[in-house]
Design goal:
three-stranded mixed sheet, six-stranded parallel sheet, Rossmann fold, 2 domains, alpha/beta
């Protein structure tokens, strides 16, 4: 339970209720899902009669499931921002999470979650690298390492438990920020069906009877407010290790059959959730502009000495750099009306300037290599295709990223948060003799970028040039030179 600072407990409040059946199985307990999906389900229970709660599964070995369980699934969410010129500052106790568990501690208990007859939705956010096939997951006898492997094992257990006729259709709503995330998840699960030689009827059930939605999510979620947590706890009256913060704006685009809205009635709760036949235009605009700018600014801003997104976009030098990235190298690559793109870009910058949110650059540096591939590299490649020249601002960010992954800056260590193999590969490359060799080894890694980037004319040379400047001169001089 949340520990009260006074004698009141959460169970004394009228909003608290844990009697809803578990309708949602959620892979991921991080800040985003708790500040977005679980908040939405909380509102659905209150305003739309959804009558469902969430069972959280921790997708990796180390996480926060134990803290969630300790707090009985309860935590406070603070949403702040500007809407139509009006300031919004809302604190809400989220009660939609019924339980959280770590499958690495009890695999059999994890599999039994599939026996739930009320289960309707499976939702996930395991980062861009999460929806991937891992050939090392050779069976379901032991807990698979990958998220799709874990999911396949649970689905197969459910199929067998209900004698090949589960009582409810399942709807998969992945939130990972990759193109066609639902379609990709289905494909990886089918790969495991083949690898594990599972029953053909089970494979047919997965392929034809489970609904996999492609989705897009949009809300800036800085996460736990370390510097303000004691003050917030005094205001809410509880010790809460899982306070989450987010912007007031939210958007969820779900591509799938229209009947889903009848069992997930977000319209009745006044939520900005769009059910569409094709989410591609929404995704391309958001990933390239909002997420692309996020990923572009992370290594540049951190090495420049900034800590937050707001500091980056309002800084005279870095802010100018980001404006030029948007207007000169990202927007020209998008096949949408220019006025619409400029309007969206301006809205994004306003959201980044949100005075209520302290979004730390380090907190969004997680898996920056795979994020650059998904969010920024498409703009790089499209710019080269259209302009027949290199997008220098975006490549400066790539050089900054390589320098960032060296793991130290100006004599101080950098706490990198990425796949250990990826970090080791880059740091091993830094042992080479010169910047050209370092750059070629990293840009030539097809596992990082999906292709050998050294084969693009002059790209590696330009990145190597920037890398040498950054390493020898620091960030200020090379960045100001780029802008001049």
């Amino acid at each position: 339970m949340l520990k009260p600072l006074n004698q009141q407990t959460v169970r004394d409040t009228t909003i608290y209720s844990k009697n809803h059946p578990i309708k949602v199985l959620q892979f991921g307990e991080g800040n985003f899902l708790r500040a977005f999906v679980d908040w939405i389900i909380d509102l659905l229970n209150e305003k739309a009669g959804f009558n469902g709660s969430v069972q959280i599964v921790q997708p990796i070995e180390k996480g926060m499931a134990d803290v969630l369980a300790e707090q009985d699934g309860l935590y406070h969410l603070i949403l702040q921002g500007i809407q139509n010129g009006e300031s919004k500052d809302i604190t809400r106790l989220i009660t939609s999470v019924k339980d959280a568990m770590n499958p690495y501690e009890d695999y059999q208990r994890y599999l039994k979650l599939g026996e739930n007859p009320d289960l309707q939705f499976i939702i996930s956010n395991t980062t861009e690298a999460g929806i991937a096939f891992d050939s090392r997951d050779t069976s379901s006898e032991e807990l698979p390492n990958s998220f799709p492997g874990k999911l396949t094992a649970l689905l197969h257990h459910r199929f067998q438990h209900f004698n090949r006729n589960p009582p409810k259709d399942l709807v998969m709503i992945p939130c990972e920020l990759i193109d066609k995330n639902g379609s990709n998840l289905r494909q990886v699960i089918l790969q495991y069906c083949d690898l594990w030689k599972l029953d053909g009827k089970f494979k047919h059930w997965v392929s034809d009877q489970i609904t996999f939605c492609n989705t897009l999510v949009d809300r800036i979620v800085p996460g736990y407010p370390r510097d303000k947590a004691p003050e917030i706890e005094q205001q809410i009256g509880y010790k809460d290790k899982l306070i989450a913060t987010g912007e007031y704006f939210h958007l969820w685009v779900i591509e799938g059959p229209d009947w889903i809205r009848t069992i997930f009635p977000t319209d009745k709760a006044g939520l900005n959730v769009k059910f569409v036949s094709d989410q591609t235009p929404y995704r391309t605009r958001k990933v390239r502009i909002l997420n692309g700018l996020h990923t572009t600014m992370v290594p540049v801003g951190i090495l420049y000495g900034l800590e937050t997104v707001r500091e980056a976009v309002t800084d005279d030098v870095v802010g100018t750099y980001l404006q030029q990235v948007l207007q000169q190298e990202i927007i020209p690559t998008l096949d949408l009306p220019e006025d619409e793109l400029s309007s969206f870009a301006n809205d994004v910058l306003d959201r980044f300037r949100n005075p209520y949110i302290k979004h730390h650059l380090m907190s969004i540096s997680l898996n920056s290599i795979s994020k650059y591939k998904v969010r920024v590299l498409p703009s790089v490649l499209k710019y080269i295709e259209l302009k027949d020249e290199l997008p220098k601002h975006l490549l400066f960010s790539l050089a900054s990223l390589i320098r960032f992954y060296k793991g130290e800056w100006q004599g101080k260590p950098i706490q990198l948060n990425d796949d250990k193999g990826a970090i080791a590969f880059i740091q091993d490359a830094w042992k080479l003799d010169d910047y050209e060799q370092i750059t070629n080894k990293i840009l030539g890694n097809k596992d990082f970028w999906g292709q050998d980037l050294t084969r693009i004319d002059h790209l590696s040379e330009k990145v190597s040039e920037f890398l040498e400047q950054i390493d020898n001169k620091g960030m200020q001089e090379p960045l100001k030179s780029l802008l001049d």
